[in-house]
Amino acid sequence: MRKTALITGATSGIGYATAYEFAKHNIDLILCGRRLERLQTLKKDLSKLTNVHILNFDVRDKDATFKAISSLPEQFKTIDILINNAGNAHGLDPINEGSIDDWDAMMDINVKGLLYVSKAVIPQMTARKSGHIINIGSSAGKEVYPKGNVYCGSKHAVLAITEGMRIDLNPYGIKVGAVNPGLVETEFSKVRFKGDKIADTVYQGFTALQAEDVAEVIYFAVSRPPHVNIADVLMFCTAQASSTIVKKDV
Ligand code: NDP
Ligand code: 8X3
């Protein structure tokens, strides 16, 4: 039977690659993000492979989030798989120099946005007693690194919320898991460093994970048999041993 997945943050990076990976496997898609043009291009491209609906909203906006998800047409109303992926780091500063706007953005998007989308989707899953939620955490949710403070805090929260969801949704047979990558070469560093050219150096001297590598793991998780739940995955590129240890070519 065909399944429908809602992916937040589908306009770039891991979410974008996951949309392609799922489309290849005939999963119907609800693709979300703020950049409408990118969503429209994705719809045009992926409609050749599967059924696609786009939702253009900011996960920070609670009302817009609920309105968008409740506006889904009949064909897309049943969401089997939720990929809570939208998120970013904003800034890399010691806590004493951090910007409150950056802190707000990370907590509002990575934590509260994930909760808003989940709150809008979970009731239909509990009613049906089925569903699968994958939250995109990070190695930063398992290990704090210098200047990572609030981003790491937001991703630690994602992992705690994931565990809480798995416990509370267990009576309903809903699968909940987290995929936690280390360094992935996406637009992540462009956003973190706000366009500063330092972003170009982050993935230099080693082969970072690519968004497609993470998308394959996400697809692996959603394609397991009903009795198997991939609860938590930590993935690094081979050059990375921990948040701070990366073997670079000199
Ligand atoms: P990208 O910057 O490439 O993608 C981020 C996505 O999130 C975009 O599609 C963006 O869409 C969406 N997004 C950001 N803010 C909002 C918002 N307010 N409302 C709705 N959508 C939003 O980064 P990645 O693909 O790397 O990041 C995806 C996830 O993976 C994040 O949760 C990130 O923390 C996590 N991650 C990334 C790692 C990395 O090294 N790259 C490693 C570990 C985890 P738009 O701008 O169109 O709204
Ligand atoms: C993204 C990976 O190490 O930049 O979550 O925090 S890292």
From TrEMBL:
Keywords: Oxidoreductase. Gene3D superfamilies: NAD(P)-binding Rossmann-like Domain (3.40.50.720). The keyword Cytoplasm does not apply. GO terms for molecular function: oxidoreductase activity, acting on the CH-OH group of donors, NAD or NADP as acceptor. InterPro entries: NAD(P)-bd_dom_sf, Sc_DH/Rdtase_CS, SDR_fam. Signal peptide: none annotated. Pfam families: adh_short. Belongs to the short-chain dehydrogenases/reductases (SDR) family. This is SDR family NAD(P)-dependent oxidoreductase. It comes from Seonamhaeicola marinus.
